[in-house]
Amino acid sequence: MTTSLGTARDAPSAQPNPPAASRAFRPDIQALRAVAVSLVVLNHLWPIRVTGGYVGVDVFFVISGFLITSHLGRELFATGRVRLGAFYARRVRRLLPAALVVLAFGAIATLLWVPTISWPRAAMEIAASAFYVENWVLSALSVDYSAQNDAATVAQHYWSLSVEEQFYLIWPLAMMLAWMAARTFLPARRRAAVAMMLAGIGIISLVASIWMTWSSPAQAYFVTFTRAWEFAAGALLALAAHRVRFPRRIAEIASLLGLALIVASALVFDQATPLPGIAAVVPVLGTLLVIAAGGTGVRLVHERVSTLRPVQWLGDVSYSVYLWHWPLIVITPFVLLRPMTTLDKVGVVLATLVLAWLTRRFIESPGQRWTWLRSSARRTFGAMVAGMAVIAVLSGGIAWGSAMDEQSRTVAVDAPTAEPCEGPNAVSDPARCQDPFAVPAKVAEMGERNAYYQTPDACGDLLPVLEAGDERTTRVCDYSDGSAAATDVWLIGDSHAQQWQWALFDMARERGWRLTISFLGGCPPAEVAFAGYGRDKSTAKNERCMRWGETAAAHVERERPAYVFTSSFTRKQLVDDGTGRPAEMQYAEGLTAYWSRWTAAGSTVVVLGDPPFNAAVRDRDCVLLNASDPLRCGVGRDVAQPPDPMLLAARSSADPDVIAFDPTPYFCDESLCYGVIGGIPAYFDGDHLNVEYTRLLRPFIEEAVPGLR
After folding, report:
1. What end-to-end distance do the CA atoms of the chain give, in Å?
2. Residue 155 or residue 13, greater confidence
3. CA distance 121 to 102
4. Quick check: helix, strand or coil at residue 677?
5. Is the pTM of this model over 0.90?
6. DSSP strand pairing (514-519 vs 530-533)
7. What does the radius of gyration of the chain's CA atoms come to, in whole angstroms?
């Protein structure tokens, strides 16, 4: 029984060059597995070098469609039915033992080494992976702006295994349905009827994939129905394999062209390539060409390499290689307490291969041969449920451990008291505070107590104003004790405005303000032609951002607050008005359009410049992994703090009521920007500030605003 990520090697046929239909073992497919898993591993370890290695997953999906349909087709066309219980039981015995063992390892490793801030998400993803719905969890999280900054978990790579298992669940049912329909409508063309139905599924899926990759790219990458066409492509080749007979020369060209398409995709594609839409056709077509060429029954030129024992061995253990490589990549830096070097990455590769061999030898193969399980599908499913239950208990333990740390999950209400050389104070008085960037962090591990998105009790529930679709964005944090004469203040923007809110909460508490906060993740509060943030460049999302921005601008204008604090991640938020003008120019025009409306209404606009980049320029866990030597996290100022369109617009504004606060001096010296300043970590996650550091910046913000000094 075969799968795309590994195979139980049956004995090769005794015929020297058997036809494709009769060959129980296909060395060309085994070599394809080796290529595919190598591309994935290289992409995960060296993403800048093998930028598109993720296409290895697309190769696996096509192989799965081909092999499973070949197996199901033989049974269906010979007997008129598929023994579903036996089929699913074989899938369980083949895939689950190794998958559950690696998940158990990942759960235990998470408890031992991963920071507690990552435990809740890890618990959820480990459980989702055990039940093969990880792809749907990641799809749901991809639309959660704050979740996009979470660290990768040990189970994240199970999304593709989840897609594959869902295919295994549905595909035999689809083939049986087509067969039964053919008995009524096309009794003489049953194979053709099955092929037409599978082709229909593939076409619908491909159209959905292209459309969703354009409209909702973040979700499209993970959901099952955008990937079904890749399985269907392999399935159609399996049904047509008995008719595909390339002449040798054509087979040589097809196989080499196919390999070239796969490798070219891996080297040319990158994170900006829209997948799995039309671009995925390239590696899919390449895989189909290699498989079709290998079915001719003649020895091809690439087999001088592809049939070598190391290549075949790697294909044989490819499933376990895929399972092990990712948790080792995630865990190793925390074990070493430093980012991985090239030598460390080579060590991860070697450890992956050793663990894959051990898993294949002592878990995968015995699991398939164990007579006690093979003799009863009921026992197999019972063992499956028991194994899943164990993983559920482990993931529940992780979630419980995170919940028990409740005290560290709440931001303290009272503002922190800074020592003279602590946090940004250390930078503001260099004569008194020596080496402000070299002081190790007192607490390097971030927890919920450091989370920028928490709100105090003074903030009410989200209000039904300034809604973006069905998402509410606005709260009122009333520190005025109900005074009608209270000063009204607004903080508005995306999560890069939200990261400043605790400095504003402290100001509001001290001054008795009525503070309104309004945030929409990934959306700039500016009159611009917004073109998307990150991978999410969907037209619907862009239009929602622009509608929210205009509604918010008009609402603030009517409210006439004394101060409007605002910020946005404009360096990563794309704008394109079709004129070809630089983004800085478009932002300057679009931002001042709103600011001038607010100042004309009597408000003072305070623009909070964006802090230097964090995870975009250094390892996101650099501070934690270099706790004793924070200087290792220093990054060139020109790289970490490129021009900020929002700050540039504020500085160039002729409006005296537009005030700019530039935080750069509190993160950087003349040449480098740092992750720890005065013994306080500056960042909570990949690109948001640590609440403690934000609150310590409050006096410097007040100093920049004349009315608050």
Report:
1. 74
2. 155
3. 17
4. strand
5. no
6. unpaired
7. 29
379 vs 46, 166, 373, CA distance in Å? 42, 21, 6
Are 683 and 614 a contacting pair, CB within 8 Å?
yes
Interval 536-582: pLDDT, tens: 667 888 899 999 999 999 999 999 999 999 999 999 999 999 999 99
| d(C-alpha 693, C-alpha 681), whole Å | 7
Asked if 251 and 296 count as a contact pair (C-beta separation under 8 A), the reply is yes
Residue type, 194: V
DSSP three-state, residue 573: strand
- The number of C-alpha atoms within 13 Å of 708 and in the hemisphere containing its C-beta is 26
Name the amino acid, one letter, at 177: L
Q: For residues 121 and 140, what is the distance between their CA atoms, to the nearest angstrom?
A: 13
What is the pLDDT confidence band of residue 248, given thresholds at 50, 70 and 90?
Answer: confident
What DSSP line would sit under 489-513, residue for residue? EEEEESHHHHTTHHHHHHHHHHHT-
Say how many C-beta atoms besides its own lie within 10 A of residue 569's C-beta. 23
Which pLDDT score, from 0 to 100, does residue 15 have?
32
* For range 499-512, the mean pLDDT: 96
What pLDDT, on the 0 to 100 scale, is given for residue 514? 96
For 255, other C-beta atoms within 10 Å of its C-beta total 25
| pLDDT level of residue 139 (50, 70, 90 thresholds) | very high
Phi, psi of 301 (to 5 degrees): -65, -35
Residue 14: pLDDT band with limits 50, 70, 90: very low
Query: Residue 40 half-sphere exposure, CB side, CA atoms within 13 Å?
Result: 27
- Is residue 53 within 8 Å of 44, Cβ to Cβ? yes
Q: Which residues of 679-702 are buried (b: 16+ CB within 10 A; e: fewer)?
A: bbbbbbbbbbbbbbbbbbbbbbbb
CA distance 90 to 380: 9
Tell me the per-residue pLDDT of 640-660, one tens digit each, with 9 for 90 and over: 999 999 999 999 999 999 999
> Smallest Cα–Cα separation from 695: which of 476, 397, 417?
417
Q: In whole angstroms, how far apart are CA 308 and each of 27, 30, 256, 455, 707?
A: 10, 11, 17, 61, 76
H runs (alpha helix) in 80-118: 84-113
Residue owning tokens 């559950």: 100
Of 614, 645, 660, 608, nearest to 530 (Cα)? 645
Percent of the chain with pLDDT over 90: 70
- CB count within 10 Å of CB 706 equals 10
Can you read off the two tokens belonging to residue 607?
Answer: 């623009």
With 0-12 / 13-18 / 19 or more C-beta atoms within 10 angstroms meaning exposed / middle / buried, residue 550 is: middle
Q: What is the distance between the alpha carbons of residues 38 and 44, in angstroms, rounded to a whole number?
A: 10
**Residue type, position 413, single letter:** V
How far is 399 from 417, CA to CA, in rounded Å? 32
